[in-house]
Sequence to fold (288 residues):
Amino acid sequence: MKCYLCGSANHHKREGKVRDNPNIEILECNECGLVFLDTQNTDEKFYAEGNMHNQAEIYKLTERTDFVNDMYLFNKARLDFLLDKIIGKNVLDFGSGYAGFLLQAQKFAKSITGVELEEQVKPIYEKHNIPLLRSLDECKGGGHYDIITAFHVIEHLKEPIDILKQLVSLLHDNGKLIIEVPNADDALLTIYKNKAFSEFTYWSPHLYLYNPHTLKKLAQKANLRIDFIKCIQRYPLSNTLYWLGNNLPAGQKKWGHFLDNELLQRAYEDTLASLGATDTLIAQFSIS
Fold:
């Protein structure tokens, strides 16, 4: 199997398991470092009918019911990060899910639009008068959007280069594309080498996992200008320590009340970022 980014057939198997299909192998390119699955079984029907935002396997496995609450905080962090960019602007969120980000952005943006395949989310958009498109083909012509976001979507795409090109074609000349993806070099995988985490975090719909180098290479392949690629840490130190101590997620629910504070989180994030080992990457691209 050849690497999607560099075409090399030189790769090795990464430690870990795909939690919903242990028969799938996790591969890492020896030339460019792209992490990818050797089997890709997702298609548009899978995302339309899969009810991912209601019964995500990660939450079934841990018997958690706080999916919406967790995502509210993540979307609040995204809004805080992007607020000055979206005020009075036309915003398109690609892979917008149940509109978590758009609901928070609605009061600040000039217009908001979601693109989401999943059929069950439609009532949420109708209730809050948010335009919902089922494909990029339904989007208004090129040059309409000021900001396009794609939060934890690009890792799901079989042909991300083509989609990135299509997305930037919808921006006006000074428009920005903001994407957020999991980091393949998450410290729990690369520094702490936590076995339990390596058998939990990989998921069959995550076809490619990027680090700062491979995300830059992806953007270059799509002929995008790279404004920045930043390492950010969504989950706090308490979550990391809970994995290391108990081999389980959601440590912030157990230990966060006495471990997590803004000063400690910033120091932890800065340390991991200096190593390229945060759990998440956020990048801004524009038309080259």
Q: What stands out?
A: The radius of gyration is 18 Å.
